[in-house]
Write a structure and sequence with these properties.
By secondary structure, the chain is α/β, with parallel strands linked by helices. About 45% of the residues lie in helices and about 15% in strands. It contains ten helices and ten strands. It has helices at about 30-45, 85-95, 110-115, 145-155, 155-165, 170-175, 190-200, 205-215, 220-235, 240-250; strands at about 5-10, 15-20, 50-55, 60-65, 100-105, 105-110, 120-125, 130, 165-170, 180-185. Strands 1-2-3-5-7-10 form a six-stranded mixed beta sheet, with helices on both faces.
């Protein structure tokens, strides 16, 4: 993996930790961060030794959204925000084969909210506030926010967040279903680590297929989705992980999954 300037990446016990590392800019998303995030995700997708990911932020914020810094030598020039690039990289994150846990250590706003919408499980520190904020600057969410937000929190909360540009306490997002657990800030990373460690003991093939079925099913009609789920489940019965799971259950021992 190349040297990284905007991310910290560490591997521990089959879990890859990706830390957005621009704390002086509240981890605002720059073009370089997008390039580095895409490279790390693509490397991770092909790494059979990584069975879960945790995404978090350095410092006091998770992610403040796109970096809208204006060049002081040319204050009339607009910042370089490539929405198509952001959308493409966030799609890579959403389609990551391994389970992705967001450990939201502080404010997630605008593009930061769009980023965590692409994660599978969201843990958050107590006291965190989350919001869209695009409306405050006359902007539109360009990385999937208008599509994913109502599907994760419901139409009415999504419209309130989009129209007002306000942030809401993390407990609201827990009630709406986006945040799965709220923990004291000092316990956040340990809780994310415990959750990720538990996922590494599951069948990586089974989790990958479950994730694909859920994501695909959201875009399919009922009949197509159910038929596809049955087809994949039947195919899964021929896998080594299926056989190992059944044998381990019968023998009352912990399974040793290989992902095949």
């Amino acid at each position: 993996m190349p040297d990284l300037q905007t991310l910290l990446v560490t591997d521990r016990d089959q879990v890859r930790w990706i830390t957005l590392n621009r704390p002086e800019r509240r981890n605002a998303i720059s073009p370089l961060m997008l390039d580095e995030l895409e490279a790390v995700l693509e490397d991770t997708a092909e790494d059979g030794g990584v069975r879960a990911l945790v995404v978090t932020g350095a410092g006091s914020a998770f992610c403040a959204g796109a970096d809208l810094t204006v060049d002081p030598d040319d204050p009339d020039a607009l910042p370089d925000v490539d929405l198509a690039r952001s959308d493409a990289v966030f799609d890579v994150l959403e389609r990551q084969p391994q389970p992705v846990i967001a450990a939201v250590n502080g404010t997630a706003a605008a593009g930061g909210l769009e980023l965590l919408l692409c994660c599978d499980i969201v843990l958050a520190a107590a006291g965190t506030r989350i919001g869209d904020l695009h409306a405050n600057a006359g902007l539109l969410p360009g990385a999937g926010g208008t599509y994913r937000l109502p599907r994760r929190v419901g139409v009415n909360p999504a419209l309130w967040l989009l129209f007002t540009g306000d942030t809401a306490p993390v407990e609201d997002f827990q009630r709406w279903g986006l945040v799965h657990r709220v923990v004291p800030g000092e316990e956040l990373l340990a809780e994310a680590g415990r959750l990720a460690a538990g996922l590494t003991r599951k069948s990586p093939l089974g989790l990958r297929r479950m994730k694909e079925l859920v994501r695909d099913g959201l875009e399919q009609d009922r009949r197509t989705g159910l038929a596809h789920a049955l087809e994949v489940a039947q195919a899964h019965q021929k896998s080594a992980d299926y056989a190992e799971g059944v044998r381990a259950f019968a023998a009352r021992r912990a399974p040793r999954f290989t992902g095949r």
